[in-house]
Amino acid sequence: MSDATAPRKFRSATDEPPCAKWLMVGIAVAGIAILVGAPLIAVFAEALQQGWAAALASLGNRDALSAIRLTLTIAAISVPLNAAFGIAAAWFITKFDFRGKAFLITLIDLPFSVSPVVAGLCIVLMFGSNSLLGGWLVAHGYPIVFALPGIVLATVFVTFPFVARELIPVMIEQGRAEEEAALTLGASGWRIFRTVTLPNIRWALLYGVLLCNARAMGEFGAVAVVSGKIRGKTASMPITIEMFYNEYLSVAAFSLAAVLTLLALVTLLLKGAMELRHADQLAALHPR
């Protein structure tokens, strides 16, 4: 057989020299170490530069405790609301055919493309004391801006897509066959959702809730606009960290940042666990 007619040997797309593989792995590890590892180490090092006693004492500050309570309250209100909204939106989009479905999906993705600061400004313009609706609410003792309702409203807006965007692909993949079968057997809509739909989407739902919770606790831009940064009242943890740092209270600022970092790390660990369980679920639904 001549060289012209001999079969060509094709190389796999992943068949790279070992040096190239280690070089790419090294670049990735170095990037993660610089962008993620170094800031984490710096946060905890600065928080503990005067010892554990000083760090714990700064967390016992009235403003720090108020910020922690406010952040947890915001997450406790906004995350369940977005979970309910996300489930309803995903159900409506995946289970029904109607005109304007693409437009509705675009609206759900809107918070991803709008700056949080712009979103907060829009809330101020709509519900501020100078607006018609906002002035009426303030006059009757129900202020929105510079109060908890405005902060929750801004947080709900910026975190709305997370649950819906996690549920929609899963519910599209699962289809409608099981729900339609349950309906033909006489099951009610609530029973279908509780016994058929919810068990199939539970891991995607938990995953979306974790992402929503992480963003709700760490949101700064929209909350900074609508809160007014009132110390001890409307200052969340990210805002209080900025205030402490600007006042050269570095131990207090980094100690509070360490608490927020620990919450983020716990969320990240739970997110990784949800990804593994979600992957196992998908593998069970689609065996090879």
Tell me what you see in this structure:
The protein is mainly α. The chain has 14 helices and no strands. It has helices at 18-47, 52-59, 62-95, 101-108, 110-113, 116-127, 132-139, 148-159, 161-174, 177-184, 189-218, 221-227, 237-246, 250-285. Helix 2 (52-59) packs across helix 14 (250-285) and helix 10 packs antiparallel against helix 11. The longest helix is centred in the last third of the chain and has 36 residues, at 250-285. The radius of gyration is 25 Å and the shape is globular.
Topology:
Blueprint: H1 18-47, H2 52-59, H3 62-95, H4 101-108, H5 110-113, H6 116-127, H7 132-139, H8 148-159, H9 161-174, H10 177-184, H11 189-218, H12 221-227, H13 237-246, H14 250-285
Helix pairs in contact: 1-14, 2-14, 3-8, 3-9, 3-11, 3-13, 6-8, 6-12, 8-11, 8-12, 9-11, 10-11, 11-14, 13-14
The biggest beta sheet reads: none
Helix content: over 70%
Please, what is the average pLDDT? Answer: 84
Report the β-strand fraction as a percent range. under 5%
- What gross morphology would you assign? globular
DSSP helical segment count: 14
- Specify the structural class: mainly alpha
Q: Find the count of extended strands (DSSP E, 2+ residues).
A: 0
> Distance between termini?
40 Å
Residue stretches low in confidence (pLDDT < 50, at least 5 long) are none
CA radius of gyration: 25 Å
Order of helices and strands: HHHHHHHHHHHHHH
Descriptive tags:
mainly alpha; 14 helices; globular; single chain; 288 residues
